[in-house]
Amino acid sequence: MPLRRLEADHRVTTWRGVEFWMADEAGSLVFCRISHEALRDQANRARFEGTHDKVFEAYQELLEQVASDAFDADASDEAGCVLITKEALDRSRPQRLDRGFWNPRSQVRVVAQKEK
Fold first, then answer.
1. What is the pTM of this model?
2. What angle do CA 19, 50, 107 make, to 5 degrees?
3. In a 3-state reduction of DSSP, which class is residue 14?
4. N or C, which end of the chain is more exposed by having fewer CB within 10 Å?
């Protein structure tokens, strides 16, 4: 059951990472968190400079998709929080390359081509 973005931005940066809410298909709220380590790693890969909030904003679509995938895989902690770690982003990388990814610097959708 995929998650969707809420209309209002309910994001906060804490010592644990960037925390935000999404909703499932029934409209129930789902609490999500991306670790600071995962945000730094994403920024380093993309050579993106900025605060963790700016990294989140630039890659929000990607991060929300990883959160939705984790939710579908039942990957939440004992409190029901969907955690997005560096490892979760690493695991999703091959799938993202098949689907293409959003490059916020160029504002274009980049589609990776498979080698033959």
1. 0.74
2. 95
3. strand
4. C
Written as six digits, the tokens of 67 are 């959160």
Q: Rounded to an integer, what distance in angstroms lies between the CA atom of residue 84 and that of residue 66?
A: 7
Which residue is listed with tokens 């959708």?
A: 109
Mean pLDDT, the chain cut into blocks of 10 residues (116 residues total): 86 92 93 93 88 91 91 85 88 53 41 39
CA 79 to chain CA centroid, nearest Å: 19
40 to each of 35, 54, 79, 86, how far by Cα in Å? 9, 11, 25, 9
Q: What does DSSP say about strands 29-34 and 101-103: parallel, antiparallel, or unpaired?
A: unpaired
Answer yes or no: are the C-beta atoms of 83 and 35 closer than 8 Å.
yes
Q: DSSP code of 115? A: P
Q: Are strands 17-23 and 12-14 parallel, antiparallel or unpaired?
A: antiparallel
3-class secondary structure, 29: strand
Task: Give yes or no for a contact between 17 and 38, defined as CB atoms under 8 angstroms apart.
Answer: yes
Give the residue from 70, 66, 46 showing the smallest Cα distance to 58.
46
